[in-house]
Amino acid sequence: MSNAFRFLRTPHQSSAQSTQSTQSAALRHLWLPSLLATTLAACGAPPSPAPPAESPRSVADAKPVPVVSEKSGFEVVELVTGLEHPWAVAILPDGTMLVTERPGRLRRVGANGVVSAPLSGLPKIFVDGQAGLLDVVPSPDFAKDKRVYVSFAEPSLRGNKAGTAVARGRLEGDALRDVEVIYRQEPKLSSGTHVGSRLVFDDAGHLFVTQGDNRVDAAVQQLDKLQGKLVRIWPDGRIPDDNPFVEREGARPEIWSYGHRNMQGAALHPVTRKVWTSEHGPMGGDELNIPEAGRNYGWPVITHGVDYSGAPVKGAVGKAADGMEPPHHVWEVSPALSGMLFYSGKAFPEWKGNLFVGALAKSALIRLELDGDRIVHEERLLTDRAERIRDVREGPDGAIYVLVDEQNGKLLRIQPRQAGD
Question: pLDDT value at position 39?
Fold first, then answer.
């Protein structure tokens, strides 16, 4: 019997037995690959990331660059340069930050911009193409437990394929301690593309994990595989009893929604408290969605985009189909959406409630105005910088922090214009 079905309830199990069986099998599913990986290390696990040619550095005496937008004048300050393809920034309660670099490094950045050496303790990471170290978020109880969660591309036993995984550990000084992998995308099908991934906690403490389809379209509509799925788990990897497919034979119980292509952004709405996601289309058809439990969001059957060759997407029937959810908002021309932020700070009161989304291909920070859940206006910021915006987060002072994803990547701060500027 395949791993995908080991947790399934037999016809003779009670509901209570089923829940216990599901949780036990899910936990076996987490530790068994680690044991085998240790045993089979000679099969070719990827090497540790090479040190960068030049260490990241804070920008001393950085001069703010004034910018005018439709609703607010602001200025941009370069805090850090020399980051190698930075992917995510997490802001801790004391104002310090954690930044991931895709080649497999996690760094601390002080409130003054001073950058640490890479922290130790990360699990093995598959680094190739789009794959590597991805998102980082602090635990909702970070002040007490000091836990940090990271998503990353985890190598297969042979080291030639990867799948999205999530690990957590305690942040102590220059290291993550007691690191454990709490989630693994199975089977591992990625050769270095479409691994997602963002992490979002909801108010009940569930952890949502966005992923990609690994460029294996057929797997996205198959519920026994985790490609193209938004999953919902507890912070220790257990599966919530009310997940939509817990009782369905042949389906993975971690799944919240499916039919997604490659979700690289996610954020919790400040009013409705629902998770929103951003999703790359192929050529055209980037999406925002508000994924509901058990719903099918259509990829690759429905899409507003076409294949990179210009031909129709193989297997697509059009922009809509019965039983499949249309995108909440769609861009016919792809900005290449990434990190997301609902702004709730005080530094820019005119932006309160706006949704900010990073754009890679169109090199912009997209500001969206909402009427309820409906997108009613769009403005593109920072376009004159011609930089790929990978992530966007809000600081405790209401400033907005932005990551530029380049070989010589940057951490920027957007702040109100100072008097006299």
Answer: 41
- Where b means 16+ CB within 10 Å and e means fewer, 244-277 reads bbbeeeebbbbbbbbbbbbbbbbbbeeeeeebbb
Under the banding of pLDDT at 50, 70 and 90, the label for residue 53 is low
For the chain, percent of residues with pLDDT exceeding 90:
82
* Share of residues in the chain with pLDDT > 70 (%): 86
d(CA 205, CA 141): 10
**Residue 304 bears catalytic tag:** no
328's CB contacts (< 8 A; 6+ apart) are 276, 287, 288, 289, 290, 373
Residue-range domains of the chain with CATH: 1-43+90-252 (2.120.10.30), 62-85+260-421 (2.120.10.30)
Predicted local distance difference test score (pLDDT) of residue 290: 98
Catalytic residue among 29, 194, 260, 304: 194
pLDDT at 48: 53
Residues whose CB is less than 8 angstroms from the CB of residue 363 and which lie 6 or more positions away in sequence, other chains included: 382, 383, 385, 386, 387, 388, 389
Per-residue pLDDT tens digits for 7-22: 333 333 333 444 444 5
Q: Is the pLDDT of residue 325 over 90?
A: yes
Q: Which two tokens stand for residue 158?
A: 């042979």
